[in-house]
């Protein structure tokens, strides 16, 4: 699949997921360098992938979900990027983000490859959003055509509310 980054076409590696698919098994690292897998997550989940927390669009996206999704009981938000876990922890502290769990795909790019979000040319993750029910079925998915654009917050949050 081709998407754009700052107007230039880039390639996403892996199969793109769709509504109704079972969310794939993955491994990523939390801020303590511990491995996290799909089986370690429960309930309704929002999985966001972003290129880097240290960019203005990603920063605002995660802060927005930190505020808005925390008001939806039973929904957990995970944000994945290629940022090192140390950088993610520093950013979360500086941004006062406490309601979003950051995970890093820096080790194997496993999350990016199994979700079709790994950008071949950049070595980063594309901007995507997945809502996954407690049965691990995808109820919402959006691969943004332009990685530097903002996601549709309202659509994602509404899908998460319906998934409860």
TrEMBL record:
One short Pfam name that applies is Redoxin
Q: Does the keyword Transcription regulation apply?
A: no
- Looking at the keywords, is Flavoprotein present? no
Question: What is the top-level taxon of the source organism?
Answer: Bacteria
Keyword annotations for this protein? Answer: Antioxidant, Disulfide bond, Oxidoreductase, Peroxidase, Redox-active center
The record's GO molecular-function terms, alphabetically, read: thioredoxin peroxidase activity
What is the name of the protein in this document?
A: Thiol peroxidase, atypical 2-Cys peroxiredoxin
* Organism for this UniProt entry: Clostridium acidisoli DSM 12555
Lineage of the species this protein comes from: Bacteria, Bacillati, Bacillota, Clostridia, Eubacteriales
């Amino acid at each position: 699949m081709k998407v754009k980054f700052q107007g230039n076409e880039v390639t996403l590696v892996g199969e793109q997921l769709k509504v109704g698919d079972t969310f794939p098994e993955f491994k990523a690292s939390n801020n303590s360098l511990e491995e996290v897998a799909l089986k370690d997550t429960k309930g309704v989940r929002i999985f966001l992938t972003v290129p880097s927390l240290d960019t203005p669009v990603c920063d605002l996206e995660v802060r927005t979900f930190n505020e808005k999704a925390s008001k939806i009981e039973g929904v957990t938000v995970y944000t994945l990027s290629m940022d090192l876990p140390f950088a993610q922890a520093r950013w979360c502290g500086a941004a006062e983000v406490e309601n979003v769990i950051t995970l890093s795909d820096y080790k194997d790019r496993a999350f990016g490859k199994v979700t079709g979000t790994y950008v071949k040319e950049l070595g980063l993750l594309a901007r995507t959003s997945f809502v996954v029910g407690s049965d691990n079925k995808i109820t919402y998915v959006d691969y943004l055509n332009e990685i530097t654009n903002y996601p549709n917050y309202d659509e994602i949050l509404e899908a998460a509310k319906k998934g409860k």
